[in-house]
Amino acid sequence: MSAPLHDRVTIVTGAAGGIGEGVAQALLDDGARVALWDLSKERTEQVARRLDPSGERVLALEADVTDQDAVDAAVAATTAHFGRLDGLVNNAGVIAMAPSWEEDAAHWRRHLEVNVTGTFVCSKAVGDVFRSSGGGAIVNVASNCGKAGYRNMAAYNASKSAVIGLTRSLAMEWADVGINVNAVCPGGVDTPMLSQVADWLSPRIDVPAEELLAGMGAEQLGGRRIMPIEIGRVIAFLLSNAAVIIRGQSISVDAGATPY
């Protein structure tokens, strides 16, 4: 029995670690070939070597998801290297903690530019390929912050809510050309981004960052944090033929912390 994603080619943005690396590992486990995109070519190549030392099933590319020309070039390089394109995981994102009183326009725009505009730019560029090749699947990495919202994260919360809305719109508009679009909404995943949040909070509430991190696990999982590959396995399913009846959904993958 062949793997669910046997020989399919998927782009993963923000792939130089964290959730992106976990997603890439899950896709490779399910038989896919993967193009890893990130701002840092060096870090992306390091991840590629860890995941597939042979280099036969991975491609590392430097790409800024907010730059249309860079995205177009990376799509062309991916399709030229692998000869096809079947999936896209919009994982690239930024978070910078700040009370809403201290937000400024530049801080706000940066979140929207990377988290929302970058998701659309990549989706549109890859969608054009899918439209001419008969279809494909897109999974956007939103967040439970886009559903519930949290303090000191107004820009991030708003950007992830926008990703959820974008997911619904693209799923409706692109279904007739064979493109399936969904999103996942992770909670506390064991990544450098979560550590960044703990580091920011620590001096402000006078609690050691290590203690904060220890409390950011999922109660329903016995207090442990969710691992990136666990998010990746859900995404791998959404990219497969088995998920063809799931469309425009933003699925909470936070162990029940957000029950909707």
TrEMBL record:
Ranges in coiled-coil conformation: none
Key words of the record: Oxidoreductase
A Pfam family: adh_short
CDD domains assigned to the protein according to its UniProt record, in alphabetical order: SDR_c
Alphabetized InterPro entries for the sequence: NAD(P)-bd_dom_sf (IPR036291), Sc_DH/Rdtase_CS (IPR020904), SDR_fam (IPR002347)
One annotated GO molecular function: oxidoreductase activity
Similarity field: Belongs to the short-chain dehydrogenases/reductases (SDR) family.
Cited PANTHER family: DEHYDROGENASES, SHORT CHAIN, ESTRADIOL 17-BETA-DEHYDROGENASE 8-RELATED
The protein's name in its UniProt record: SDR family oxidoreductase
